Fold:
Amino acid sequence: MTRGTYSLLENYMLSCMDDSAHDREHVYRVLYYALEIAGTLEDVDYNVLIAACLLHDIGRKEQFENPALCHAAVGSEKAFTFLTEHGFDQEYAEQVRQCIRTHRYRKNNQPQSPEAKILFDADKLDVTGAMGIARTLIYKGIVSEPLYSLLPDGIVSDGTNDDAPSFFQEYKYKLEHLYDRFYTEKAASLAEERRQAAVTFYHSLYREAASAYRDGRDALAGLLSDS
Amino acid sequence: MTRGTYSLLENYMLSCMDDSAHDREHVYRVLYYALEIAGTLEDVDYNVLIAACLLHDIGRKEQFENPALCHAAVGSEKAFTFLTEHGFDQEYAEQVRQCIRTHRYRKNNQPQSPEAKILFDADKLDVTGAMGIARTLIYKGIVSEPLYSLLPDGIVSDGTNDDAPSFFQEYKYKLEHLYDRFYTEKAASLAEERRQAAVTFYHSLYREAASAYRDGRDALAGLLSDS
Structure:
């Protein structure tokens, strides 16, 4: 890829994410992970891969404003339109579109090409380890969701079987189960290296919160009187 | 304290924080930590301590809307006014006001009473360990600040000497240096128990981010051509 093409795509990506430092950082990490994964494979089309990585989340804003929209679907169409309008050929634009369309977990919409599988894996890698914890917490701040829910007896739920959204609920529902869902061996091994940092953090946070409520509620009950 | 008084103060606290799940969770944790710390001390006035804990952050909204305001100063006056208007005596309201006024790090405004020192320590304890990491990340999401800054050569800064706000900057500037600033032995030992979780997380996150940029930027440079 030429530096000129890279800059064109990078600037379009930045223009789609003008107010979110976090989305931007994520895009660069996904690109860098993707190149690391691609380095272990043969016959990767880097022109497709780099474009797909840079543009994979350009539909985020639309989904954030209207949760009924899927950012992968919106982003893939925006990318196709942008590329064809800027003189890239249809076949290339179509390959990039397919990568972006299939980068989310969807049973009926799985990545097919090597580049699509690499993008999928690189994107998921950024939800593993300490980075996955950090990004999830940042998102909870943006959407004002709590760290944890309380069980009916007033103690902290560890997230298991929670219906209400919280950080612990998302950890149990999603973050804990990512590690056997990679297409490439390199991504699976990178994820495995990062896994313990997430597990350790979750258990530490749960222990800190749960012990405060467990001991504190008893102490408080002993200090309150009826009149 | 009677259950009626507790409910009155709790409801006033909740009315001051109507849109932030995180602030609310923090208040209960601070109350519970404070009771744990108080259990190791003698001559603690629990009526003052419980009220001060429940009301210590009721000035947060004012500070968030106008950063020139100090939430400890605003909150202490709101608490004093609320208590005297609800029939509590002046001396009691004044003790609560003093606790709230001195709960931030300020050289010229340090906690004096046992209850003020306990509130200070309990509030700081919630910035230690995994909880301190989680709360800081949530706040970065709320105010749209990044996880890290890049150094001039394009690699990830670990936060040392950073001017620009980021999670790593706050870790290096603030979170790393809390542990020798407690007034009570109990809080210092609880903080020390939690310390390793924060240190481990910071190092894991830095390693994950830094390695992606370091390897990825080189790989990308090798793939881009001038024309």
Observations:
- The domain at 127-227 of chain B is CATH 1.20.58.1910 (Methane Monooxygenase Hydroxylase; Chain G, domain 1).
- The CA atoms of residues 182 and 188 of chain B lie 6 Å apart.
- Chain B touches chain A through 57 residues (CB under 8 Å).
- Chain B is about 65% helix and 0% strand.
